[in-house]
Design goal:
This protein has six helices and two strands; from the N terminus they run H-E-H-H-E-H-H-H. The longest helix is centred in the C-terminal third of the chain and has 12 residues. By secondary structure, the protein is mostly helical. 25% of the residues are buried. It binds a DNA duplex through helix 2, helix 3, strand 2 and helix 4.
Length: 115
DNA sequence: CGTATGACGAGCC
DNA sequence: AGGCTCGCCATAC
């Protein structure tokens, strides 16, 4: 498989255990680019069809669903997370204290891909 | 190659 | 406290 930053992001997301959530920034940090949180979000935005990706387990740094794109995405995400036992506050936020998951360092996941 | 975009984050007002 | 702006990084065009 061609190793791009996106692919690396997908692999990290795939290793998120059910019932746990992580943030874009943490994924970016795990990949060796702590400032690439935007790119991480963009990677999920370009999620290829046919790939079963638990993208719903990725939230922003405050534990809230990112609703920048459209209206239905966050709703689906919330429903999926709730079905996994993740509780939402009245503000629509997740308790990262309980459900947070820190991805292990995965720099080598894509670092060996020369430009 | 330069510009634009995007599911973010931290900082400033 | 809440909202807005700038910055960072990786692709698409």
């Amino acid at each position: 498989m061609k190793r791009s930053f996106y692919q690396a992001v997908y692999q990290v997301v795939l290793m998120i255990p059910p019932g746990r959530v992580t943030t874009y920034g943490r994924i970016a940090n795990a990949l060796g680019s702590p400032r690439a949180s935007r790119a991480v979000g963009y990677a999920l935005f370009n999620t290829p069809d046919g790939l079963e990706l638990p993208w719903h387990r990725v939230v922003n740094g405050r534990g809230e669903v990112s609703a920048r794109g459209g209206g239905e995405r966050p709703l689906r995400q919330r429903a999926l997370l709730e079905s996994e036992g993740i509780a939402f506050n009245d503000d629509g936020r997740i308790d990262l204290r309980k459900n947070c998951w820190y991805p292990p360092p995965c720099e080598e996941l894509w670092a060996e891909q020369p430009k």
